[in-house]
Amino acid sequence: MQDRHHVVILGGGFGGLCAAWSLKNADVQVTLIDRRNFHLFQPLLYQIATAWLSPANIASTHRAVFKWQKNTRVLLTEAIDIDAEKREDIPSDSRVAYDSLIVANGSRHDYFGRDQWQAFAPGLETT
Fold first, then answer.
1. How far is CA 3 from the centre of its chain?
2. Cα–Cα distances in angstroms (integers) from residue 100 to residues 29, 48, 74, 94, 103, in the given order
3. Among 13, 52, 71, 86, which is 20 to 30 Å from 113 by CA?
4. CATH of the domain at 35
5. Short-list 27, 3, 7, CA closest to 102
6. Which residues pair with 43 in a beta bridge?
7. pLDDT tens readout for residues 56-109
8. Domain containing 86: what range?
9. Cβ contacts of residue 124 below 8 Å, gap of 6+?
10. Is 19 contained in some domain?
11. Farthest-apart Cα atoms in the chain, separation
């Protein structure tokens, strides 16, 4: 029996979830690696801050999101290095070999070269 193509996705935000969902019918094995066990729907953070919603309404565990997607597994760990030559991701506790790697580690706030604005316009989430 030949092993299936292994796709490793680093990051469980919008980019990582979209990549994993797009592979649900592909003949591949998908491993999603994230340091958090949940996806936070950031566009609704303001409703948490104003008490319109409970935090449980905008956070879903990765395992719950992918429980019906049989070709996907979720690892709760932090990737600390990537060995591109050996095609291995190096989480903090082991090594994960891959055939294809998708890096979707997210983004950060940008003040367009005006870092002094950060004191007056902080983001709603920190890393």
1. 25
2. 10, 37, 16, 18, 10
3. 13
4. 3.50.50.60
5. 7
6. none
7. 777 788 888 888 999 999 888 888 888 888 887 666 677 888 899 999 887 777
8. 5-107
9. 42, 45, 46, 49
10. yes
11. 59
Can you tell me the distance from the alpha carbon of 13 to that of 36, in angstroms, rounded to the nearest whole number? 10
User: 45, 124 in Cβ contact below 8 A?
Assistant: yes
pTM: 0.76
Write the CB contacts of 36 (distance below 8 Å, at least 6 apart in sequence).
12, 76
